[in-house]
Amino acid sequence: MIILVTGGAGFIGANFLDHYVPRLPEHRFVNIDKLTYAANLGSLAAISGRDNYVFRRVDIADAAAVDAAFDEFKPDVVIHFAAESHVDRSIAGPREFVRTNIEGTFNLLESCRRIWPGGTGLFHHVSTDEVYGSLGDEGMFTETTRYDPSSPYSASKAASDHLVRAYHRTFGLPVKLTNCSNNYGPLQFPEKLIPLMISNALDGKPLPVYGQGTNVRDWLYVQDHCEAIWTVVEHGRVGETYNIGGNNEVRNIEVVKNLCRILAEETGKDVAPLEGLITYVKDRPGHDLRYAIDATKIRTELGWSPKETFATGLRKTVRWYLDNRAWVDSVRTGAYRQWIEHNYERR
Ligand code: NAD
Ligand code: DAU
């Protein structure tokens, strides 16, 4: 089978390819990625020379380039990871989110429709729990929760989800969707909460916590997300949506304190000076209070469940960042530093 992965040089896509390319030699994996600031081909060094892996630099918002890639590789399956993914960036500049997340998804759907006649192929859309908006203190998101996105990022992902379902209902395109909670783990760009806090703590820089730090996220180790996606690709029902989550709700301030404690244990430092770096900063506009995923459907129907607990996953993640300082340095380009200065100087 030819499996075309979009955004395979980003955090989740690279973890997915790194895991499955060596384990599934019977399939050929094609990675198309624009290589934005969030991408790093160095993350794929272990698989880049393998016979069943190929990379092409493609902007999914460029319809002709997407068509050309589909004509060259004629994929049987598309797993669509590519997106602008950072909520704060979508507030500072939403245009790229509309372009990549909506127009890019549209271009991929059109190419699929063109090359897959009569209900063949599979388009797997990787989406987020943020499309459901914010929860109060009670309740969980199920697959039938009404869409109510808060940020330009989540609105653009919601629009892409709607397009994917519309192509199934209208044109019979075989699609599956997964909506997942917050991922963490190796190779995550250090603009997101967990890797930002780890790298700032190691550099002795402030740990900027938005608002009071009381917002709650449901954290899932990235490898568990990748395994859930592959389970749905292989065994999920066409036209269905599966929510994926860790059943692991934690307040942001607890995440940051946990990280300080693990960093102290792993480096032999005192925890107090690390916790002393915690700085409360101006809240994110439209900040969703709480996310919680009800993953009953994927658990009961497909038998998936996460392998990592938050304690084991967080320690693995801290260890990975400690052992891979060169990776972090390599992604902190001039553009990264500009973004960090721009985002936090206004808070
Ligand atoms: P990321 O920002 O780390 O990586 C995104 C990748 O997409 C990068 O390699 C980037 O170069 C590529 N890309 C961006 N614009 C592109 C374009 N126009 N053409 C081609 N490639 C382009 O994102 P991630 O965290 O790995 O997220 C992957 C997917 O999973 C996204 O669709 C995101 O919405 C979804 N998701 C993420 C999380 C999370 O916690 N990170 C949770 C649920 C769902
Ligand atoms: O829920 C899934 C989503 O999780 C994905 O769809 C997104 O792509 C991904 O970026 C993530 O979105 P969040 O906004 O939840 O993640 P982020 O790491 O940006 O923030 C996590 C929480 O931490 C959130 O409540 C905001 C807060 N935060 C974040 C940063 C970057 C801080 O308090 N300080 C910070 O510096």
Describe the structure.
- The protein is an alpha/beta fold.
- The site of 2'deoxy-thymidine-5'-diphospho-alpha-D-glucose has 19 residues, from helix 6 and strand 8.
Defining traits:
alpha/beta; Rossmann fold; 7-stranded parallel beta sheet; 3-stranded mixed beta sheet; 12 strands; binds 2'deoxy-thymidine-5'-diphospho-alpha-D-glucose
Largest sheet, strands/sense/barrel: 7 strands, parallel
- Could you tell me the CATH topology label of the domain at 2-187 and 221-246 and 287-308: Rossmann fold
Tally of DSSP β-strands? 12
Mean pLDDT figure: 96
Determine the strand fraction and express it as a percent band.
Answer: 15-25%
Spatial strand order of the main sheet: 3-2-1-4-5-6-10
First-last Cα distance: 49 Å
How would you summarize the topology of this molecule?
Blueprint: E1 2-6, H1 11-23, E2 28-33, E3 53-57, H2 63-73, E4 77-80, H3 87-92, H4 95-115, E5 122-128, H5 152-171, E6 175-180, E7 182-184, H6 193-203, E8 207-210, E9 216-221, H7 222-235, E10 241-244, E11 249-251, H8 252-267, H9 271-275, E12 278-281, H10 296-302, H11 310-323, H12 325-331, H13 334-345
Parallel strand pairs: 1-2, 1-4, 2-3, 4-5, 5-6, 6-10, 7-9, 8-12
Antiparallel strand pairs: 9-11
The chain binds nicotinamide-adenine-dinucleotide (NAD) and 2'deoxy-thymidine-5'-diphospho-alpha-D-glucose.
2'deoxy-thymidine-5'-diphospho-alpha-D-glucose (DAU) binds at residues 85-87, 128-130, 181-182, 192-193, 196, 208-210, 215, 217, 252, 284, 291.
In brief:
This protein has 13 helices and twelve strands. The chain is of the alpha/beta class and 347 residues long. The model has no long low-confidence stretch (mean pLDDT 96).
